[in-house]
């Protein structure tokens, strides 16, 4: 039987990831032996849940979650496998998430588990023993839920800059990044990424123009917000552009864009791109301030910088950086932004990031090109795709 989901939250922000909520509910049903049961989930605001709280519990004010069981005290629900309804206030959940320093979706997941256990007969108000029993079950289920993998396959976009880097090192015509892009697409990549730098150290104007004509999936042009490159992009009209910070002395992009510090400039650039029908992504660190700024300047996407996670030297540091990425991706989604991620990802550290449900696409270049030296480009792309759930 299905999970019946209904969102009656009266405001568009924060935005709730419907798939994430439904997948959590489906997984809960499987984990607890109720895979064939029907579970209803309703998201509302404080006003609506306060009305329900007053009508059904004779209590004033809003609460975070209410459960209405169809199995307790009657055989009808049990016979028909109808568990009941879980009602969650998004307003209260958002406040609690902010206080706890977690994402809205992490809090919604915890509330869904709590409400779901009430439907199964757990009741922390009966006794201290029952409260402990319910708490332990909640923790067990949350651990199992956070280890699950996503159901929908994430997309891979391959950066072919390093093919051009090798070509430019000899000043000749090969290897050709345009040919490399075609091989990547045939191997299953769903996007091609190139960074046209002001100093033209690798990708050249001609490369990008040829790629615009030949790429069959999606061409993402990474660029600094320099007027010359802006004009080039407006003339080319790629499928999207990603604005990145650019320093002449850096070997590769060293960190995220300071969106909060240059809102006026970026707002103007994004407006010009939007007028030309070009969606804009901003390459940012996993930082709430930058996410809020990206939303304010009307970006369509953010690409979460995964460099510090990739460079972590201890498991503790890696876990800490991963949690920053996970929370940032959910925060960005909740503000209405679409979310990609990339930088430094390789054949060891990609799977964990790829399992985050709010991320649509990973941009990976160096690791794939390095692997291609030994196994060939087609195989290198296929191996990376095999690591992405």
Distinctive features:
16% strand; Collagenase (Catalytic Domain); TIM Barrel; alpha/beta; 12 strands; 389 residues; 4-stranded mixed β-sheet; 8-stranded parallel β-barrel
Can you walk me through this structure?
It is a single chain. By secondary structure, the protein is an alpha/beta fold. It has two domains: 3-146, Metalloproteases ("zincins"), catalytic domain (Collagenase (Catalytic Domain)), CATH 3.40.390; 155-386, Aldolase class I (TIM Barrel, Alpha-Beta Barrel), CATH 3.20.20.70. 49% of the residues lie in helices and 16% in strands. It contains 17 helices and twelve strands. It has helices at 18-31, 46-57, 76-80, 90-100, 104-119, 128-146, 161-170, 177-187, 205-214, 227-236, 263-275, 288-296, 307-311, 315-334, 350-354, 366-375, 377-386; strands spanning 3-7, 38-44, 65-69, 82-89, 155-159, 191-195, 219-223, 240-243, 280-284, 301-305, 338-342, 361-364. The strands form two sheets. An eight-stranded parallel β-barrel has the order 5-6-7-8-9-10-11-12, surrounded by eight helices. A four-stranded mixed sheet has the order 1-2-4-3. Strand 6 (191-195), helix 9 and strand 7 form a beta-alpha-beta unit. The longest helix has 20 residues, at 315-334. Residues 73-79 have low confidence and may be disordered.
């Amino acid at each position: 039987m299905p999970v019946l989901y209904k969102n009656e939250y009266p405001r568009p922000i924060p935005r709730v990831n419907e798939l994430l909520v439904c997948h959590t509910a489906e997984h809960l049903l499987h984990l607890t032996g109720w895979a064939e049961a029907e579970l209803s989930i309703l998201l509302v605001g404080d006003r609506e849940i306060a009305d329900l709280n007053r009508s059904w519990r004779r209590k004033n004010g809003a609460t975070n979650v209410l459960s209405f069981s169809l199995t307790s005290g009657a055989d009808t629900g049990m016979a028909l496998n109808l568990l009941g309804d879980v009602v969650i206030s998004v307003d209260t959940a958002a406040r609690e998430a902010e206080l706890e320093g977690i994402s809205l979706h992490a809090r919604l997941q915890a509330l869904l588990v709590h409400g779901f256990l009430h439907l199964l007969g757990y009741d922390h108000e009966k006794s201290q023993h029952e409260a402990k029993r319910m708490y332990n079950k909640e923790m067990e289920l949350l651990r199992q839920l956070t280890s699950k993998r996503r159901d929908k396959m994430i997309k891979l976009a391959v950066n072919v800059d390093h093919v051009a880097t090798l070509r430019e090192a000899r000043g000749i015509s090969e290897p050709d990044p345009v040919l490399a892009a075609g091989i990547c697409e045939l191997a299953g990549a769903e996007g091609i990424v190139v960074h046209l730098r002001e100093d033209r150290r690798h990708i050249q104007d001609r490369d990008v123009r040829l790629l615009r004509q030949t790429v069959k999936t999606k061409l993402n042009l990474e660029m600094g917000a320099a007027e010359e490159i802006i004009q080039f992009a407006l003339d080319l009209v790629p499928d999207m552009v990603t604005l990145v910070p650019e320093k002449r002395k850096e070997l590769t992009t060293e960190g995220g864009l300071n969106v909060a510090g240059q809102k006026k400039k970026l707002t103007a650039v994004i407006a010009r791109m939007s007028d030309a029908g070009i969606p804009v992504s901003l390459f940012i660190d996993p930082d709430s301030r930058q996410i809020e700024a990206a939303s304010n300047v009307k970006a369509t996407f953010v690409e979460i910088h995964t460099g510090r996670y990739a460079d972590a030297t201890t498991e503790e540091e890696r876990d800490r950086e991963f949690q920053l990425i996970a929370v940032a991706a959910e925060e960005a989604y909740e503000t209405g932004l679409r979310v990609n991620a990339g930088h430094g990802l390789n054949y060891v550290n990609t799977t964990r990031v790829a399992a985050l449900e709010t991320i649509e696409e990973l941009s990976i270049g160096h690791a794939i090109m390095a692997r291609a030296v030994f196994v060939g480009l087609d195989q290198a792309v296929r191996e990376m795709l095999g690591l992405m759930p």
